[in-house]
Amino acid sequence: MSGFYTLLYKELLRFWKVGLQSVFAPMLATLLYLLIFSHVLEKHAQAYPDVAYTVFLIPGLVMMAMLQNAFANSASSLIQSKVSGSIVFILLSPLSYMEIFLAYVLASIVRGLLVGVGVYLATLIFFEVPLRSFLWVFLFALMGNGLLGALGIIAAIWADKFDQLAAFQNFVILPLTFLSGVFYTIHSLPSFWKGLSHFNPFFYVIDGFRYGFFGVSDTSPYFSLAIVAACFLTVSWITLQMLKTGYKLRH
Amino acid sequence: MTPAIEVKQVYKRFGTTHALAGVDLEINVGDFFALLGPNGAGKTTLINILAGLTLASSGSSCIMGHNVVTNYREARRMLGVVPQELVFDPFFTVRETLSIQSGYYGLKNNDSWIDQIIYHLDLADKVNANMRTLSGGMKRRVLVAQALVHKPPVIVLDEPTAGVDVELRQALWRFIKQLNRDGHTIVLTTHYLDEAEALCSRVAMLKQGKIVALDSTRNLIKSITGCSVRLRLSPDILPSVLQPLMGSYDEGCYILAVNDYSQIENVLAALRVAQVQVLEMQLLQPDLEEVFVKIMGSAENLEPV
Q: In which domain, by residue range, is A201 found?
């Protein structure tokens, strides 16, 4: 198992060495979103009764930042070593595909949590955000980051070049996160879009996560947890199969 | 005894091209082995299959008795590969790179061995430098060091001296010879045939994905009968009795092919009779390069694969 710890350590060291870009920049970006949206929309929007729009926005933004950074971590690390060729050092080693999977996903979870916790703590300076159930918050944070960490591995293995990865990020991950109810409750949507949102797995991640803070959500948190867990397991299984067969890695 | 490397009927197809067309190869423990062949012959493909970087289309390969597919973890522990491409991870220093690589093999407290490698490859000045800042030669040294962190019993070097200066080449071979004396099996590919001849006890030659020669270096060289003698004469005229031996005329020198050393006596006698003076004489022994050229030439007519 110590090979796994080394790979995890390497992955953590990698993003920490560029921490300004990998942790602090996304924190700043998220706080700017909060500042702008809350300034513009505070008086026009109200998602839940008794919850100010800005406060409603915070868990969604925290989760969005986590999802994007969990994805970016495994994806950019893998694509860089793939394109530069330094992935051979991992492929030559006796690390099992399970160890490789766990190390990349855990590193993604750690980076996602660092960014998320950082944003959350920063918002606490200015706003009072309730925290009803730490357990729900933690469970959805873990699953959401894990899901995106695994998706990052898939995208980076599939992509041959940086622009293909960027396409995956911009045309799949970004729309799914933006349209998942970060900025609104789906009850405010026309029924077609509301129905469509139920097919977006990120919606359940954010909805369940928000439930942990406010005790209110669009869908039952148990149902959300089941969906998110099923997605996480499915995506993990696909990732493991790709690593096991050496798809696009061992020719 | 279990061979260090055992390759059985390995085929590899990339689309319609056959990179390897039925390779059988056994390399014994303790061998210093050369894998030779022109570019595109399949050397790197074969190495990649042994390392698990490429999956064979069919056939099996074992490192120290461990199958590289079904028992890949053990097989990879037994193998150290120096890749041909100059690759590196730009995030880390030399020491970080080496201790991380060693950690992948589950090794802890490996610092004293890492220090030895650093010393032998003359990397001590650069241990805390970031990989990005190193020159090409230094990066090559780190690549060699990375392949050795887990003290693998089998070490494969894929063109380790391509584009490397004399100093590093000598230091590298000194270290590799030392490892070979300590019992490590060494396999190398190179286009410098004099290097292979000086270092390797056994040689395999690959052409179009097939092994076309496999023997000890000495036997391969012995297979070339006779030698050549290079003569500068005064006057610059080859006596007619010697004309049948004439190989070529090059920069004022005649190169004559003789079957064995005793024939040289006859050549000299013929020159004396013709009153031709020998200004310069040089014996040209057959070498691995000659064998290589001959084998690659005669294997020209391999059936299309």
A: 27-37+53-245
